[in-house]
Amino acid sequence: MMSDAEPGDVRTLLRQLPSLAGPLWSFDADNAPEAPQLLFADWLRFAAEVGIREPHAMTLSSVGPDGHPDARMLILKDLDEDWHFASDALSPKGRQIAGAPHVALTFYWARLGRQVRVRGAARAMPAAASTADFRGRSGSARAVALLGRQSQPLAAPSELAEALEVSSARLAHDPDLASASWTLYAVAPTEVEVWQGQASRRHIRLVYRRTPDGWSRSRLWP
Ligand SMILES: Cc1cc2nc3c(=O)[nH]c(=O)nc-3n(C[C@H](O)[C@H](O)[C@H](O)COP(=O)(O)O)c2cc1C
């Protein structure tokens, strides 16, 4: 157990670390686009342009059969009406989504002080889209995805190395091979909040909510 009297301890470090120190970006919420997808695409493009690393990395939160939340980082694979990600349907997250499709996605671009939160139901895309996603992965990513077994206990690293040799050989022999459980998911958004942090802490927040004819937009207190 760490003692708080320890020199250089974590608590001291945490108090020294700046957060939202600025200079941060601004955001004209009054003139935001009517649809959150347009605003998100603008923010994502901008984050990529200014050189933010992995601006397409996001946290996917889902709920397990015990009602407890779970979360992990994933890569955003596409954006149309929906936000897309890909993973193994037999992984813990895949099983959680099969039982409870409501999920949340969270993006954070620290240098810009921007956060985006997306809530909605995830659904598996048709098999052809999942196969196309699988085939678009790099060779090593395909070899790993072909293994399945994501998040199962690994007894020894040698077991993984041996399994990878087999799956790489299978792919070399049949480059069109695809994992049956690799799945492209689409999240249909019901609520999207964009958050522009301000060093003054007067953060600018705008929430889009799905309505029968489109989207409503409202500002939120910081
Ligand atoms: C930046 C980053 C990106 C990731 N992208 C993916 C991804 O696109 N698909 C995926 O299945 N796992 C991805 N992972 C691994 C997941 O975070 C997670 O470890 C794995 O999917 C197992 O999650 P689960 O046990 O909740 O199913 C990524 C991890 C990081 C740190």
CATH hierarchy class name: Mainly Beta
Order of helices and strands: HHEEEEHEEHHHEEE
CATH architecture title: Roll
CATH topology tier name: Pnp Oxidase, Chain A
Structural class: alpha+beta
Shape: globular
Number of helices: 6
Low-confidence parts: none
Helix content: 25-40%
CA gyration radius, whole angstroms: 21 Å
The pLDDT mean sits at 95
Largest sheet: 9 strands, antiparallel
Bound molecules: flavin mononucleotide
Counted up, domains total: 1
CATH superfamily: Electron Transport, Fmn-binding Protein, Chain A
How does this structure look, described?
The chain has helices spanning 10-16, 36-49, 92-99, 127-135, 139-147, 157-173; strands spanning 57-63, 69-75, 78-79, 83-88, 102-109, 114-124, 182-196, 204-211, 214-220. Strands 1, 2, 3, 4, 5, 6, 7, 8 and 9 form a 9-stranded antiparallel sheet that branches. A hairpin with a 7-residue loop joins β7 (182-196) and β8 (204-211). The chain is 29% helix and 32% strand. The protein has a single domain, classed as Pnp Oxidase, Chain A (Roll). The protein is α+β, with helices and mostly antiparallel strands and 222 residues long. It is globular and about 55 Å long. The protein binds flavin mononucleotide.
